[in-house]
Amino acid sequence: MASQWNVYESFQALLQAGPYHLALEGVLVLCVLFLFTAKKKPSKMVRLTKKEEEDLLAEWTPEPLVPRRTPPRPPQPSHPHCVWKGRSVRGPRGPDRSC
Fold first, then answer.
1. How far apart are CA 51 and CA 16, in angstroms?
2. How far is it, in rounded angstroms, from Cα 23 to Cα 50?
3. Which end of the chain, N or C, is surrounded by fewer C-beta atoms within 10 Å?
4. DSSP track, 6-61
């Protein structure tokens, strides 16, 4: 059977909590209220003139997001290719059959 939320039990649990716990929760509630009600200060952003903006853009050189790719090297086979009985095979076929 599902238990029902009881206001009286919650109030009793609140009264049994230690004073430091209640003080911490009070401070946290006040911080949240302050964050919601605080007014933002206007930013002191300096506006550039069109000429200054164009000068900065002319000097600016973007950095690449990824490094330059080097051309891929051809794959290096781990064993040399040999021709044996008209077929291309990899590596020596045994001690008596060398490339």
1. 68
2. 55
3. N
4. -HHHHHHHHHHS-HHHHHHHHHHHHHHHHHHHPPPPPP-PPPPPHHHHHHHHHH--
Q: Is 94's pLDDT higher than 50?
A: yes
Local structure of 15: helix, strand or coil = helix
Residue 14 CB contacts under 8 Å (≥ 6 apart), including other chains: 22
Cα angle 13, 16, 19 (rounded to 5 degrees) comes to 120
Place of tokens 């599902």: 2
What confidence tens digit (pLDDT) does each residue in 9-62 have?
A: 877 887 888 888 888 989 999 999 999 998 888 778 888 899 999 999 999 998
AA letter at 26:
G
What does the alpha-carbon distance between residue 24 and residue 31 come to, in Å, rounded to a whole number?
11
Q: Which residue has the tokens 């206007």?
A: 42
